[in-house]
Amino acid sequence: MSTHGPMPRSSWVFPLLSVLLFVGVTALHYTFVPSVFGWLFAAALLVILFGTVFAAVHHAEVVAERIGEPFGTLLLTLSVTIIEVALIATIMLGEKAVTTLARDTVFAVVMIVCNGLVGLCILVGGLRYREQDIQASGSSLYLSVLLVLATITLIMPNYTLTTPGPIYSAGQLGFVSVATILLYGVFLYTQTVRHRDYFVADANVDHDGPQASNKTIMLSTALLLISLLAVVLLAKKFSQVVDASAAQIGAPPAFAGILVALLILMPEGVAAIAAARRNNLQKSINLALGSSIATIGLTVPAVAIAAYELDRQLVLGLPPQEMVLLALTLLLAMLTLGSGRTNILFGLVHLVVFAIFMFLVFVP
Description:
single chain, mainly alpha, 1% strand, NCX_ion-bd_dom_sf, sodium:proton antiporter activity, Alkaline_pH_Ca-Antiporter, NaCa_Exmemb, membrane
């Protein structure tokens, strides 16, 4: 959705539908069960949820453009994080406790973003423009922060001694949560204020159209709050559909994490691919890598607090196979983005790694 011009009809229709759906299932005390009607309900729920997430991101972008940086970026990030935490916490606390969901979702976000989305953007741009330029200095900052965040949240829990297995102790989890928030905060300041020129293709171009009116800003603010509240309220029904779908097809536990990751990444993914088609690969990289950093930097601490308050175990450490894929992904991203120029081969290599990740989820 464009942030300029008339407000798209879908940006208010889907939030309205989500509220009506929640009121309806609450009034009827409906609980999802696998049946013909149940699967029709599941299809409608997924369509409305996806549309509402798109609407929330659109309204956050409208408001973010008006309030400027760094608050605009922070607002957009917090909006997506609220949606992600609501979905993860609800599924984790469902009838079948999923202690690995936060880990699976974070890992899925990194793999989808750094391989699937980055690869597709580079391939689409390369097919149309042969080669595209990006800011190597900005990419280095992205990847250095992502490397540290991914290591301390997804790999280090396997090698600590205070608690056995892929689990941090309460003290360790608290320390890591503070460290990730601090690192993300400094990165956000660097990106939006201190070294903003590292992350834009043309430092002299800030906007591509007129600013939204005050009336539009007020309406977008209200619809953003409604959209976020609606997603949070429907998260319980979404978790029931995920559990039933996974049981129906015999999907592995990581399937739920992939579904949550796809739901929250879809709006930014569409925007990133569109930017690559307009020969603005830098914006694509900003959206893609920014999503993965925000997911670890904000979602992990939020889920850690929820797990601590509700006395639930939080498994973060990856199995050996997935650690190898994570290391391969980060190394490949450094090689791809470090040169400052991309072509279709870089994109294809990333997509091959993404295909390997998806295949191994179902055939480990």
